[in-house]
Amino acid sequence: MKNQETDIVVVGAGPVGLMCAYLAQLCGLRAVVLDQSTGPLAVGRADALNARTLQLLEIPGLFDELYPLGKPCNTSSVWANGRFLSRQSSWWNELEGCLHKHFLMLGQPHLEKLLDRRLKEVGAPVRRLSSVTDIEVLDDGCLTKLSSGKTIRSKYLIGADGSRSIVRERLGVPFEITRPQIVWAVIDGLIETDFPKVPEIIVFQAESSDVAWIPREADIDRFYVRMDTKEFQLEEALAKINRAMTPHRLRFKRIDWFSRFSVKESVAERFSVKERAFLAGDSCHVHSVNGGQGLNTGLADAFNLIWKLNMVINAGAPSTLLSTYEEERKPVAMSVVATSGELVRSTKFSETGTHAQDYVKIVEKRSGNVTGMGIRYGESGLKGRRLFDFEVYKGEEKLRLYSLLDYSKYTLLLFGEPKQGPSLPAYVQCIQLRNSMAEGPYRTTSAYYKDQAIVVRPDAYIEAAGNLADVPSLLREIL
Ligand SMILES: Cc1cc2nc3c(=O)[nH]c(=O)nc-3n(C[C@H](O)[C@H](O)[C@H](O)COP(=O)(O)OP(=O)(O)OC[C@H]3O[C@@H](n4cnc5c(N)ncnc54)[C@H](O)[C@@H]3O)c2cc1C
Questions:
Q1: What are phi and psi of 426, to 5 degrees?
Q2: How many Å lie between the centroid of ligand 1 and the Cα of residue 332?
Q3: 298 C-alpha to center of ligand 1: Å?
Q4: Which atom of ligand 1 is nearest to the CA of 224?
Q5: Low-confidence residues of the chain, pLDDT below 70?
Q6: What CATH number does domain 391-476 carry, 3.40.30.120, 3.40.50.80, 3.30.70.1150, 3.40.50.720?
Q7: Ligand 1: does its nearest atom lie under 6 Å from the Cβ of 45?
Q8: What is the pTM (predicted TM-score) of this model?
Q9: Buried b / exposed e across 433-445, counting CB within 10 Å, b at 16+?
């Protein structure tokens, strides 16, 4: 049988592989996404999209469909022995340049199902029941071998095949795992309780275990329970919930998902090999669920990687652009693992017995990771910072600035009147924003970036910034 050829093979159609494939389609790249499963996830796993993810989802037009399905939540409170101890949300409320200052509590299946459907709609469905057995990285491309005996040749390969990644293993990338010996139960379902139900993350402080109550979409709630041993029954987790919530009572009228997991932490030594094969999501970083960062970090990997492949394949960018993927994303993965590691250890080890309050203080200290908004590439100035999002007007219509970005291009934003209109390469779009009184297709009342020219990467980080007279030199900084 003749081998197939394509631009990118994505191994794994979890949320990260699906996002990689969808973004690639938006860029006009030929991407084949392979998964050994029969369909997208039906229940469980990740439960929250952070503020940065909510911004990124606007760019490929996914936000409007997902947002109404979830439940906004930006408050954490602590209770002990039936008494309220504290409540905090300052790290969300103080976010700048952000229209959704909260987590959106929404299960991973919703995102997977939406992306799976969108890929079908654009004529590039996930190839299900396709198990990858081997890969080979050549100087000018990659070979992906399937259990069916077929081989697919591609220019590039992405391993988004989860924590037990065969791609990572075949690439020979070391992935040393730390096990802090902390075990959790997680339960999703419909509850009945005399505790007041509020859309807050509630952490219960108890002598022997910490219990966290996570509000979720529709009629479900989630409980995380730190357990003492690896082997335990559901009833033991339910007993711990009731002990932590005493004097209140809680029972599950319906259980949708129950899982046990012991915490594993690791960051892959490399995120790419020969700038041909790349790792993204859980295949290159795993950690505890504390802080809700796994899915969010993986999605940010996808947004960071695909535009770079697009610029190299379609716009003639040098392949050195691809090495910035690991340079930018590996430090982020390391800080995410450090954040979740500090959080999860605080649930078990507490000198003062104030686990839950310590936990919330750590969330505050490390809120840049938890909200996703503290991630930046580069040390100083506007370069490498996330673009702020704010309202803009097109005639009478109110839009988000992020809705004007195009994932297949850089965007030159002109906040004012340049003396001369710039001449632009095909991979840059220009959007001029005037002040509220002026004529023009787009207006804003925001004072952010006033009288500046900003070059924005497709993943909404600032590539270059200067005054309006600097546009030609700013454009020279890209590619
Ligand atoms: C049991 C469990 C519980 C979790 N709970 C939470 C939680 O409560 N909160 C939270 O924030 N995060 C949670 N996570 C983490 C979160 O789900 C992950 O961070 C997220 O799924 C990572 O997405 P991914 O696409 O990188 O990998 P995955 O979602 O793991 O997707 C990998 C995909 O690759 C496919 N695949 C693997 N090998 C092959 C192969 N050889 N050939 C073809 N296909 C292959 C798999 O079928 C799968 O679809 C949990 C993870 C697990 C495993």
A1: -65, -25
A2: 19
A3: 10
A4: 8
A5: 1-4, 208-209, 438, 479
A6: 3.40.30.120
A7: yes
A8: 0.96
A9: bbbeeeeeebbbe
